[in-house]
Design goal:
It is built from three helices and seven strands; from the N terminus they run H-H-H-E-E-E-E-E-E-E. By secondary structure, it is of the alpha+beta class. The strands form two sheets. The protein has a five-stranded mixed beta barrel.
């Protein structure tokens, strides 16, 4: 983009200056490419197993200890240390081969508003009901 702008500017400046503008544009373009590559390395999209860790899944066939769950519109084999019935929500904790290792979602939920049960926050001395915010975050 910097080089394109330099080429356009070079048409409107006299002879020795347009050469300088083109050289500066080429140097700027090289810097822009290096900077863009660094940013691209930093923000790689999560895919595969690492993207599923922490996701919520719905139990499709009873987990005792193995069964099937539905995650992101896909049906997966799953294993759980605790029993879960059809329709229960579980959280993906790891992946062994093509089997998800899951655990039941806690009844109290978490402090995240997006989570199911997020209206309650767990504390060491019990649970606390989140106050109504009347539409405010």
């Amino acid at each position: 983009m910097v080089l394109l702008i330099a080429v356009v500017i070079a048409f409107f400046v006299p002879w020795p200056a347009n050469l300088v503008v083109l050289i500066l544009g080429a140097v700027g373009e090289i810097g822009e490419v290096i900077w863009g590559r660094r940013l691209a390395r930093r923000w790689r999209p999560k895919t595969g197993a690492e993207a599923m860790i922490g996701k919520r899944a719905e139990v499709v066939s009873r987990l005792h200890p193995t069964g099937q769950v539905h995650v992101n519109g896909e049906l997966w084999e799953a294993r759980s240390s605790a029993e879960a019935k059809v329709g229960d929500t579980v959280i993906v904790r790891a992946m062994e081969g093509l089997t998800l290792l899951v655990e039941p979602a806690s009844a109290q939920g978490s402090s995240h508003r997006d989570d199911e049960g997020g209206d309650q926050v767990g504390f060491a001395n019990g649970s606390h009901k989140r106050k109504e915010t009347h539409g405010h975050q």
